[in-house]
């Protein structure tokens, strides 16, 4: 069973719908016992970093998430804000992140040639081969809505990159922890392939 963590912030219905389409057993829950019994976890999120972290903290789920992700090393996928929350913190605010990946979240600088936030479809490039991106091609593109981007300390933690007037990290992977800056649940067949790969991860 895959549990989508329902802490009150996120596009949960779309994530569940995509999981259903790839044949996964999944449900949304804010119960610690469901998170403990899950095989894999998805941390969604939309909106501002500080608001997301405060809401997650108020849910009382951070301790059980730390246990399952860091101690028991269950596969965890963060989506959009949920991916940013995997790091130490964000230039968007002052709240500490989960700290599961050594990275900071940085703001796109406004320039005359680009609008911020970055909204729309962008192609991604693989930094290295990984089961999570199996089946993706150079034609694969994903839907982004963000004004901030992930900046890992270690280049090896960057799984996918994209370009928006500058090259930036579009996906991170470190051991059992994965994060996508884009919205795979809104990215049609390309997003479906990612969810399928996550479901099939050993």
TrEMBL record:
Catalytic center residues: 80, 183, 185
Entry keyword Cytoplasm: yes
Principal location listed in the UniProt entry: cytoplasm
Enzyme nomenclature, EC number: 4.3.2.10, 3.5.1.2
Gene3D superfamilies to which the protein is assigned, alphabetical: 3.40.50.880
Domain Glutamine amidotransferase, chain residue ranges per copy: 3-199
Pfam families: GATase
Localization in the cell: Cytoplasm
Keyword tags: Amino-acid biosynthesis, Cytoplasm, Glutamine amidotransferase, Histidine biosynthesis, Hydrolase, Lyase
Reactions catalysed according to its record: 5-[(5-phospho-1-deoxy-D-ribulos-1-ylimino)methylamino]-1-(5-phospho-beta-D-ribosyl)imidazole-4-carboxamide + L-glutamine = D-erythro-1-(imidazol-4-yl)glycerol 3-phosphate + 5-amino-1-(5-phospho-beta-D-ribosyl)imidazole-4-carboxamide + L-glutamate + H(+); L-glutamine + H2O = L-glutamate + NH4(+)
CDD domains: GATase1_IGP_Synthase
Keyword flag ATP-binding: no
Source domain of life: Bacteria
Pathway stated in the Swiss-Prot or TrEMBL entry: Amino-acid biosynthesis; L-histidine biosynthesis; L-histidine from 5-phospho-alpha-D-ribose 1-diphosphate: step 5/9
GO molecular function terms attached to this record: lyase activity
Oligomeric form and interacting partners: Heterodimer of HisH and HisF.
PANTHER family: IMIDAZOLE GLYCEROL PHOSPHATE SYNTHASE SUBUNIT HISH
Function (record text): IGPS catalyzes the conversion of PRFAR and glutamine to IGP, AICAR and glutamate. The HisH subunit catalyzes the hydrolysis of glutamine to glutamate and ammonia as part of the synthesis of IGP and AICAR. The resulting ammonia molecule is channeled to the active site of HisF.
Name of the featured protein: Imidazole glycerol phosphate synthase subunit HisH
Organism for this UniProt entry: Pseudomonas hefeiensis
Gene field: hisH
